[in-house]
Amino acid sequence: MSSFDPRQVFPRRKPGVTPTRWLGLSIYDPIYLGVDTRGKAVHVTLMYRNILLGGEPGAGKSVALGNIVAHAALCIDVDLILIDGKIVELLPYAPVAEEFVGNDMNKALRVLRKLQADLDERYLHLARTGRKKIVPEDGFRAKLVAIDELAYFTVTVGTKEQQEEFRTLIRDIVARGRAAGIIVVAATQRPSADIVPTSLRDLFGYRLAFRCATDSSSDIILGTGWASQGHTAVDIAPESLGVGLLRAEGGFPRRLKTAYLNDNQHRQIVRRAVHLRRAA
Ligand SMILES: Nc1ncnc2c1ncn2[C@@H]1O[C@H](COP(=O)(O)OP(=O)(O)OP(=O)(O)O)[C@@H](O)[C@H]1O
User: Fold this and answer.
1) 189 CB under 6 A from ligand 1?
2) Which of 54, 65, 150, 253 could anchor a disulfide with 247, C-beta 3.0 to 4.6 Å?
3) Is residue 35 in a domain?
4) Which residues make beta-bridge pairs with 35?
5) How far is the centre of ligand 1, averaged over its atoms, from the C-alpha of 154 (Å)?
6) Per-residue pLDDT averaged across 65-69, rounded?
7) What would the pLDDT profile of 220-254 be if each residue is shown by its tens digit?
8) Which residue range or ranges hold the FtsK domain (predicted)?
9) Is the Cβ atom of 57 under 6 angstroms away from ligand 1?
10) Which residue numbers belong to the known binding site for ATP?
11) What does the mean pLDDT of the chain come to?
12) Which of 15-24, 65-74, 138-147, 220-229 shows the lowest per-residue confidence on average (mean pLDDT)?
């Protein structure tokens, strides 16, 4: 049910695509995440949106994050910024990343400050042109910032001041990034109010909750009140790896099972992405 299906990952091209898009996927395309309970493909469109993934250790967050990064790697119209406290999850994609940050708080802050400065420049451009969001013709490339594990940088490594700066930068990038073509994909195994305060959670248009220990952790990802209406990630059986509840802006949580790419498939995607990006 959740095995890799290239037809889902590489949807048929629509007629009328521009020549550059023949070279690869686009970050404007829907991204294949997996299948719902009726076996229907579930996609998310991340351009102008962000996604938050949360749940217990081992529930399937990194696999889902990997699916998104794999799609983005094959898009020639987005730069990847990978921040991976665990190092090994996103490392295979380092060859196609603009920046790869492992468990290094100083580097993480340097990269985020640079991103914030880029954001300022994009907003200046928007102000000058009188528009509200960046479009491809503006000449700014989309960026996808993938963070595997928020808590690592906000409570584990670095000094209190550095953790606070990390939080402030992420909040700003998530809040202003959408319109400026900067997408944040963040995962956390600690869905608690100190790691994901409501004010931050509400900035994520998509939220994906994998198995959680308590209703309140599930609500921290999906939104307050969903557990009391019967939508809780506590119900997901511990052996149901990769099963989660996806909530899209304003919608009801939808149960899905994510697709699973094995290490070899990730390696093949990286090889293809290196080639595509060189040719672009
Ligand atoms: N969709 C899936 N299909 C099949 N197996 C899966 C799926 N998702 C996750 N798994 C299995 O569960 C394991 C743990 O998944 P993953 O590493 O994504 O968890 P995690 O939530 O990121 O854990 P942690 O928070 O500890 O990093 C994977 O190595 C894989 O074996």
Assistant:
1) yes
2) 253
3) no
4) 41, 257
5) 22
6) 97
7) 999 999 999 999 999 999 999 999 999 998 899 99
8) 28-219
9) yes
10) 55-62
11) 91
12) 15-24
What pLDDT score does 129 carry? 94
Is the CB of 67 inside a 6 Å radius of any atom of ligand 1?
no
The protein residue with its alpha carbon nearest to ligand 1, atom 1, reads 242
**Does pLDDT of 20 surpass 80?**
no
Q: How confident is the model at residue 23 (pLDDT cuts 50, 70, 90)?
A: low
11 within some domain: no
Q: State which of 4, 33, 63, 150 you would mutate to test the pocket of ligand 1, scoring each by most atoms of that ligand within 8 A of its C-beta.
A: 63
Q: Which of 91, 241, 246 to mutate to test the pocket of ligand 1 (most atoms within 8 A of CB)?
A: 241
pTM of the model as a whole: 0.91
Identify whether 145 is part of a domain.
yes
Cα separation, 241 vs 56, in Å, equals: 11
Is residue 173 domain-resident?
A: yes
* Residue to mutate (ligand 1; options 62, 147, 189, 208; most atoms within 8 A of CB): 62
Is the CB of 244 within 6 Å of ligand 1?
A: no
DSSP, collapsed to helix, strand or coil, labels residue 3 as coil
If you average pLDDT over residues 4-24, what whole number do you get?
50
pLDDT at 7: 46
Q: Give, using CA atoms, the residue closest to atom 15 of ligand 1.
A: 60
Inter-helix orientation angle 263-279/61-73, to 10°:
30
Q: Where does the chain have alpha helices with state H? A: 6-9, 61-73, 105-129, 150-151, 160-180, 198-201, 215-222, 263-279
Q: Are 165 and 158 in contact (CB under 8 A)?
A: no
Range of the domain at 109: 44-279
The CATH number of the domain holding residue 54 is 3.40.50.300
The pLDDT of residue 8 is above 90: no
How many separate domains does the chain show?
Answer: 1
Atom of ligand 1 nearest to the CA of 65: 18
